[in-house]
Design a protein that fits this description.
This protein has 13 helices and 5 strands. It has 332 residues and is mainly alpha-helical. It folds into 2 domains: 206 residues, Rossmann fold (3-Layer(aba) Sandwich), CATH 3.40.50; 89 residues, Tyrosyl-Transfer RNA Synthetase. The protein is globular and about 70 Å long. The two termini are 30 Å apart. The chain binds tryptophanyl-5'AMP (TYM). Tryptophanyl-5'AMP binds next to strand 1, helix 1 and helix 7.
Length: 332
């Protein structure tokens, strides 16, 4: 019997992947393959809660797949798939929506934020988004869901939904735990360090993209917002810009905050920002080069997502069949 615990996570191909997506998510995933049974998806169905250009969505989904592999996710060891290729996600999502309360969805921070940002398109999908995410997780009976800090609430509501369902029908779903890295779980914008670095941020200077050229990365870090204290010290409240740069430098180099404070004691912010830029350039360089190579190999990418969908579907259908039986649907 397979004793390995299961992991599921995903990223929306709603924009180019950022340093936040990399440090908060993908970088950690690559290290888990040996010890866990891992499922990683391109959450394309979630993206259409906000209007997407179809051609861009298709392109970004494949670019994201190339980036996953380039960042070290071996398709032989991880099941990598496109969410919309496994219909069980939409099907379980419907069932779970009947076990999710209007009130609990109304309390989701991300729904409140996104509906404020998309006031002319507050569609039902935006509201039920966490139910689809719960289906993503529960279909695979995931033990752990590696995410950044901003997705923690969605994993919690997933547990609540699973618990409610299990309360009625017995132990159908495993209750998942969020798995949040110690550093890098909340990378902030370089321009407005009070806000998280986001794929959909219109201010490109605040956001470092995984595929950015070295010169652009260097320029963005050079212009990063700091403070007038001229001291490299970790203090999120008083020094959000510097603390964010310290986080990034720490994940990129493995150095502790204390080491970083010593390294830059008595030196100006200019030196520090250049050092962070260089560290990020070197961190991302091999990933970008490999992703650029892979994106040209359409046949290979297709073989990966096809095999991934088949494997994912096998697992997902086991759970869906069980759920349909439990709720009383007649078997075909
Ligand atoms: P998404 O696409 O917004 O982000 C993908 C992952 O990256 C993390 N992340 C960050 N981490 C640190 N700092 C940042 N600035 C930063 N920005 C993003 C996010 O926390 C996330 O882990 N709903 C999800 C996608 C999803 C999913 C799932 C995740 C769909 N189904 C099932 C886990 C399990 C989302 O929108 O993530």
């Amino acid at each position: 019997m397979d004793e390995k615990k299961t992991i599921l996570s995903g990223i929306q191909p709603s924009g180019a992947l950022t340093l936040g997506s990399y440090l908060g998510a993908i970088k950690n995933w690559a290290e888990l393959a040996e010890s866990y049974d891992c499922y990683y998806m391109m959450a394309d169905m979630h993206t259409i809660t906000v209007r997407q250009n179809p051609a861009d969505l298709r392109r970004r989904t494949l670019e994201q797949l190339a980036a996953y592999i380039a960042a070290g996710l071996d398709p032989e060891k991880n099941t990598i798939f496109i969410q919309s290729h496994v219909p069980a996600h939409a099907e379980l999502s419907w069932v779970l929506s009947c076990y999710t309360m209007f009130g609990e969805l109304s309390r989701m921070t991300q729904f409140k934020d996104k509906s404020a940002k998309n006031a002319d398109n507050i569609n039902a999908g935006l509201f039920t988004y966490p139910v689809l995410m719960a289906a993503d997780i529960l279909l695979y009976q995931a033990d752990l869901v590696p995410v950044g800090e901003d997705q923690k609430q969605h994993v919690e509501i997933c547990r609540d939904i699973a618990n409610r369902f299990n309360g009625v029908y017995g132990e159908v779903f495993k209750l998942p735990e969020p798995y949040i890295g110690k550093v890098g779980a909340r990378i902030m914008s370089l321009q407005t360090p009070e806000n998280k670095m986001s794929k959909s941020d219109p201010d490109q200077n605040g956001c470092v993209y995984m595929m950015d050229r070295p010169e652009d990365i260097a320029r963005k870090f050079k212009r990063a917002v700091t403070d007038c204290d001229a001291c490299v010290r970790y203090d999120v409240k008083e020094k959000p810009g510097i603390s964010n740069l310290m986080q990034i430098y720490s994940v990129a180099t493995g150095k502790s905050f204390a080491d970083i404070e010593t390294e830059f004691a008595g030196r100006g912010y200019g030196d520090f920002k250049a050092a962070v830029g260089d560290a990020v350039i070197e961190l991302l360089r091999p990933v970008r080069e490999e992703a650029e190579r892979l994106i040209k190999d359409k046949a290979y990418l297709e073989s990966v997502y096809r095999a991934g969908a088949e494997r994912a579907e096998r697992t997902a259908m086991r759970t869906l069949r069980k759920v349909y039986k439990k709720v009383g649907f007649v078997q075909r």
